[in-house]
Design a protein that fits this description.
With about 375 residues, the protein is an alpha/beta fold. It has helices at about 25-35, 45-55, 95-100, 120-130, 150, 175, 215-225, 255-260, 275-280, 300-310, 315-330, 335-340, 340-350, 350-360; strands at about 1-5, 35-40, 55-60, 65, 75-80, 85-90, 135-140, 165, 190, 205-210, 230-235, 245, 270, 295-300, 365, 375-380.
Length: about 375
């Protein structure tokens, strides 16, 4: 069985998260997106756990949950921050297990945020997860604020034991990450880390996974044995920290220029080292993926494409009407983005078909993200210069 799964999101009790991030809304929007499974997120927060219990139903005693009126399945997860400000993603066997383990984590107030700040190091956190048969791995490994490679040159410096996976994050992809030799032995996860339920956020990155059946145990074995068939995500140039750049004016620098300026921009702002520069520091001369590495496919959210193409806000009636029409005709967003023949999309929207064809062939022109600003797609309509 092949499923589309986004294994890292946040609920409404996380900081800077939409109040619409509720289980019911998440389930409905995931179905429109084409996701078979999504993370619960925030599974150490007591109010969120109670809401999950009130809203979701166990799916055949598998550690998987569902809602009454959708096909969407949920897997119990949480992201935590350790005492070095490194973020870790934990995938948990069940909601009941999350209740049992939450009191073992040391925090000033574990309910202060859906993503709790723990007074523990990475190995102490891992030790708890191992006792409860969870899976754990570093989240968005290259993010310059909270990724593992912000503070460490190797994963082993952070954990004494081997984590179950690594999560790439929005500013990198398989091909960039595999420049680092130690990552060749790890399963890569590509997740949205979404703070909003809408399809231009949730599922913007996801995993296509072969599982024996819909259960925690099957997902556990799939990640352990790396039966990820494909990773999907945005082009890393779109990520907020892909290039080295100023966090105030967003000017792009080479890492050598930035270091000469002591990481201070001409505008007085702070220059943040980009993911690409950090990967270059850690790369080995032979930048080649292992033979068993699943392919990485680029996607961009459909509503974002429509918004950029027609210069209208994502939430405007114009964009949403076009979006809903495409979903009705082609079942879900992932189907439109990946599988629907370009000739069929042309019948609905000729300009959109050209854009989808461009990113399927990796020929989109992108102004790269840097310094906390997302990258931008440069589109050219027929009979227009830009």
């Amino acid at each position: 069985m092949i499923i589309n799964a986004d294994l890292h999101v946040h609920g409404k009790y996380s900081m800077a998260t939409s109040k619409n991030m509720t289980p019911k809304t998440m389930a409905h929007e995931a179905q429109k997106k084409g996701l078979d499974m999504i993370a619960t997120g925030d599974a150490l927060h007591s109010k969120w756990l109670r809401l999950l219990e009130e809203t979701l139903m166990p799916y055949n005693d598998t550690g998987i949950y569902t809602t009454e009126d959708t096909k969407t399945k949920f897997i119990t997860t949480v992201e935590v921050e350790d005492n070095q400000r490194i973020h870790h993603l934990i995938i948990i066997p069940s909601i009941e297990t999350a209740w049992q383990m939450r009191d073992e984590f040391k925090a000033k107030d574990i309910d202060a945020d859906g993503r709790p700040k723990l007074r523990m190091n990475a190995q102490e956190i891992m030790d708890i997860t191992l006792r409860y048969d969870c899976m754990i791995g570093p989240a968005h490994i290259f993010t310059p604020w909270t990724g593992i490679y912000k503070s460490y040159d190797t994963i082993r410096e952070c954990y004494d034991a081997r984590p179950d996976f690594v999560e790439l994050g929005l500013s990198s992809d398989t091909y960039l990450a595999d420049a680092i030799k130690e990552l060749h032995d790890y399963t890569y996860l590509t997740n949205s880390d979404s703070h909003s339920p809408w399809p231009h956020r949730m599922g913007r990155e996801f995993n296509r996974i072969e599982v024996e059946k819909l259960s925690y145990k099957s997902l556990y074995m799939a990640i352990k044995n790396n039966t990820i068939t494909e990773n999907y995500g945005i082009n890393p140039n779109m990520g907020k920290y892909h290039e080295t750049g100023c966090t105030r004016c967003y000017r792009i620098y080479t890492i050598r220029e930035a270091q000469k300026r002591n990481m201070k921009c001409t505008c007085g702002g702070r220059i943040k080292k980009g993911v690409k520069a950090r990967i270059d520091e850690l790369a080995t001369p032979e930048k080649k993926s292992p033979e068993n590495r699943p392919p990485y496919r680029y996607i961009l959210p459909l509503a974002q494409l429509l918004s950029t193409l027609y210069n209208r806000g994502i939430t405007t009636k114009y964009v949403q009407t076009r979006y809903d029409t495409l979903i009705r005709e082609h079942d879900n967003e992932i189907e439109v983005l990946i599988n629907t023949p370009i000739s069929q999309i042309k019948k609905d929207d000729r300009e959109l078909a050209k854009v989808i064809e461009s990113y399927r062939t990796n020929s989109l022109e992108i102004e790269p993200g840097r310094g906390g600003q997302y990258g931008k797609v440069r589109l050219k309509k027929e009979n227009e210069k830009d």
